[in-house]
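Researcher: Structure prediction, please.
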Amino acid sequence: MSTVMTKDLKRHQKMSLTNLYFNRFLAIRYTTAFFLFLNLYWAIFLIGSTSSATILPIFLFILGLLTAFEQIKLYRNHSNRLPYANFFYRTLLITCIGLIITLYTPLYPLFYPFLKNTQYVLNVLTTFLIGNLFIIFLVLFKLNKIKCNEDKHFKRIQAYEKIIN
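Model: Predicted structure follows.
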């Protein structure tokens, strides 16, 4: 094997390993993008309604941005600890629980002044927020598995490293 081919193979293996580590967080990146835009749109609707609760989705949006930047940095610096993501999803968890509680209180118009206060809307919002809670629990579970290096993707990375070394 020539040295050029060996160098190309090593470069390809290193790039593959970098991509494997980066893709370890693929589901978390997509989920973060979902919540990032969800909070952006919620903030826009609240700004249009001149609600004082606008600060909550703006705060969540900023946390989502920090989480997204943290994940972008993972391409060059492999880590299994994501403090911003952990904080973001724990904050979302508390927020969703709080929002479910406020749906059935006089605080409802503060957070959703752009929606009618009907039983149908309350049922849809409750279902949506419970769905979000489910997603958040899955992400927190995945983040914990990644932190402990117990995720399936890490095991595949280790197997690949054994093959190329």
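Model: Residues 119-147 form the longest helix (29 residues).
Researcher: Thanks, that helps.
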